[in-house]
Design goal:
The structure holds two protein chains of two kinds.
Chain A: E1 2-4, H1 13-20, H2 22-36, E2 40-45, H3 50-65, E3 81-86, H4 98-104, E4 130-131, H5 132-136, H6 138-144, H7 146-151, E5 160-167, E6 173-178, H8 183-189, E7 199-204, E8 210-213, H9 223-228, E9 237-242, H10 247-261, H11 267-284, H12 289-306, H13 310-314, H14 317-324, H15 331-337
Parallel strand pairs in A: 1-2, 1-4, 2-3, 5-9
Antiparallel strand pairs in A: 5-6, 7-8, 7-9
Helix pairs in contact in A: 1-2, 1-3, 2-3, 10-11, 11-12
Chain B: E1 13-18, E2 21-26, H1 31-37, E3 61-64, E4 71-72, E5 83-85, H2 89-105, H3 114-120, E6 170-172, H4 182-187, E7 197-200, E8 207-210, H5 226-230, E9 236-238, H6 239-247, E10 255-261, E11 270-276, E12 279-284, H7 298-302
Parallel strand pairs in B: 1-5
Antiparallel strand pairs in B: 1-2, 3-4, 3-5, 6-9, 7-8, 10-11, 11-12
The chains are: A alpha/beta, B alpha+beta.
């Protein structure tokens, strides 16, 4: 199963891969299918990617015509084909178990784990779910060989990584850097900041990720480096907010996003995201930051601990990091903002 | 003639620890089952004894040593060597928050035991601010996914709306709905296979709905009332109960329960008649009954009027 429901805000790497080289996705899925003995690959693509869909449909048709997909792939006797399923716009359907429900014709809701997808996944069968970037990485591994691929990057994060850079930098876009490059390298690769602008904060990992300060650009962009710095690479989102950005408004927007995108299944997420948004709105309207932050922490902790899936568990990350790392809502800060 | 006795395949016994106490249970036992076996009380709302656990309400969460998040006791099976804490600070915090989040957004006035739990976990549902005004009938049903009016945070959003009264047999008071999914599962593939109701909408606007929000008489509903049987909050109730509560005459103290066999057909379902002042006011069915596990049809559930026609002749 190829998860192409790339819906983390600020993520566009899989879109570039699918639109630019749809054949690489097909090849990678075929290899993955061969490796695990699967005969059908499902490609679940988000509904908002019509061009990627057209390119993939065209590529799949051509691949079938050339015998690269079908009952006898390349005359090897291995049968493999790919079915495309389109999402209908829900963020939650990119969750690795909600995607099964969506394909099966059920409500797109995360399932309780265990059982994990590799034990009981799509239609109750063992399923390997990976996103487009992960699958496409199979190709350089086969071409270069494992050791050569692993030589790129760091010990624990190997290979190249795609970063979706957006926000106030000179040339936002998709950047491929070896794991281990720092945040500063990435920002410099994009031409740095425009004249007179400085970096206020960087949101790593998208809405479900966490903020770092503008003076923390030496964080290495690796899984272990991000974890050590108390943040996450997530889907590779690097959103740079310059000194003119309204952080509170950004947080309110993130909270609204999670409220809208919660599937509504479990209480901590369904109601917690509403209470989180209400509290941030009160702060923006001049409420007492101290008591609101205490309330936010309590709601956030329950969402993180007791939600069914990653959506609820991470819905408070950005707000928490803005409070703890950026010092937002400390008395002096809010005084200034007023 | 000898008759073979059918036995379930033997189950391996596993050892685990709950609150520091060693337990030995058959493989496949859930944390909740093991806890009730040893007398440890765990609050539950969406758990149903006749249904597959949905683990949606999260009020039963417990802490498993080494797990990143808390796990629902109702569905998580004990594993060998697992160490479970059912009353740690982390557990108590999440239970308190779940109760507060529900209490601040849903009318829990007819939910059994919830007051006791609120007290046990020091829950204060009012601290999210005054409750928002209830929505007009149909407003919540017309909301679109991914769209909401943010407001200014001065009032706490609720799911409250007027009661849906569209037939003579039962009412739907979705102000009391905690979205436990039990009615949907009972109506759908777990028991009745009627599929008259499902979950519509997303997030806070998620709601139980008939197809295209049609009234019950226009829906696929067959009035078996099995949804009422499993509803944990009183959101679904008999019309008789609803009318009596409105009139202030509903009094469970004055009610007696008599379990008997339904006389309509030969299946042999058990019905429990709830009688107040010599009138049948509600019918339930024992969940441990081997014939129907608490399920009935429209006749057993609602067809009791002829029993109490007295007088004229």
């Amino acid at each position: 199963m190829c998860n192409a429901d790339e819906s983390e805000p600020g993520t566009f790497k899989d879109r570039v891969l699918m639109e630019g080289d749809p054949f690489s996705v097909i090849e990678a899925m075929t290899i993955a299918g061969y490796a695990i003995g699967a005969r059908t690959g499902y490609l679940y693509i988000r509904g908002e990617y019509p061009r990627a869909l057209r390119h993939l449909e065209n590529a799949i048709t051509l691949a079938r015509g050339r015998g690269l997909l079908g009952p006898d792939v390349l005359g090897s006797g291995f049968a493999f084909d790919i079915e495309i399923r389109r999402g209908a716009g829900a963020y939650i359907c990119g969750e690795e178990t909600a995607i099964f429900g969506s394909i099966e014709g059920q409500r797109g809701e995360p399932r309780s784990k265990p059982p994990f997808p590799v034990e009981k996944g799509l239609f109750g069968k063992p399923t390997a779910v990976n996103n487009v970037e992960t699958l496409v990485n199979v190709l350089p591994i086969l071409l270069m060989g494992g050791p050569a691929y692993a030589a790129v990057g760091t010990d624990q994060s190997t290979g190249p990584k795609l970063f979706c850079l957006s926000g106030g930098v000179r040339r936002p876009g998709l950047y491929e850097l070896p794991f281990g490059a720092t945040l500063r390298d990435l920002v410099e690769a994009a031409g740095g900041m425009p004249e007179g602008r400085t970096i206020q904060a960087v949101l790593l990992g998208g809405a479900a990720g966490a903020f770092v300060r503008g003076d923390e650009l030496d964080i290495p962009l690796t899984f272990e480096g991000a974890r050590a710095a108390g943040t996450t690479l997530g889907s590779g989102v690097v959103l740079v907010l310059d000194d003119t950005a309204d952080l509170v408004a950004t947080l309110v927007r993130v909270a609204a996003f999670f409220r809208d995108e919660s599937c509504g299944q479990c209480v901590p997420c369904r109601v917690g995201t509403v209470r989180q948004e209400e509290s941030l709105l009160r702060i923006r309207g001049g409420g007492d930051p101290e008591s609101e932050v205490a309330l936010l922490r309590e709601v956030g902790r329950a969402m993180k601990d007791a939600s069914i899936c990653g959506l609820g568990q991470t819905a408070w990350n950005a707000v928490e990091s803005a409070i703890d790392r950026l010092g937002l809502f400390e008395e002096s800060e809010t005084e200034e903002a007023r | 003639m000898t008759v073979p006795v059918l036995l379930a395949p033997p189950r391996r016994l596993i050892d685990a620890t709950i609150d520091g106490e060693q337990v030995r249970v058959p493989e496949g036992t859930t944390v909740l089952e093991a806890c009730s076996g040893m007398g440890t009380d765990i609050p539950t709302l969406c758990y149903g004894d006749t249904l597959t656990p949905r683990n949606a309400c999260r009020v039963c969460v417990v802490e498993v040593e080494g797990a990143r998040t808390l796990v629902p006791a109702c569905s998580r099976k004990l594993e060998p060597g697992m160490s479970v804490a059912t009353d740690s600070e982390r557990v108590r915090h999440s239970r308190k928050m779940v109760l507060e989040l529900l209490g601040s957004s849903v009318d829990l006035s007819t939910t059994p035991q919830v007051d006791e739990w609120m007290e046990r976990y020091d829950a204060e549902p009012d601290r999210f601010g005054p409750r928002a005004e209830a929505a007009a009938l149909g407003v919540r049903d017309a909301r679109h996914a991914g769209d909401h009016e943010p407001g200014d945070g001065s009032v706490a959003e609720t799911v409250e709306q007027p009661v849906k009264v569209d037939n003579d047999l039962y009412v739907r008071d979705y102000s009391k709905c905690i979205m436990c999914y039990k009615c949907v599962d009972a109506c759908g593939d777990q028991w009745q296979n009627t599929f008259a109701i499902g979950v519509a909408g997303r997030g806070f606007d998620a709601r139980i709905s008939t197809e295209h929000d049609v009234t019950l008489p226009d829906s696929a509903c067959v009035y078996c009332g099995n949804c009422i049987e499993v509803c944990p909050t009183g959101a679904l109730s008999f019309r008789t109960e609803f009318d009596m509560r409105q009139a202030g005459t509903w009094d469970e103290e004055k009610q007696s329960e008599t379990t008997t066999v339904c006389t309509y057909c030969g299946v042999g379902c058990n019905v429990t008649l709830h009688v107040q002042e010599n009138e049948i006011v509600k019918v339930t069915s024992p969940h441990d009954n081997p014939v129907t596990h608490g399920n009935l049809c429209i006749k057993g559930r609602f067809g009791f009027q002829h029993v109490q026609r007295r007088g004229d002749g």
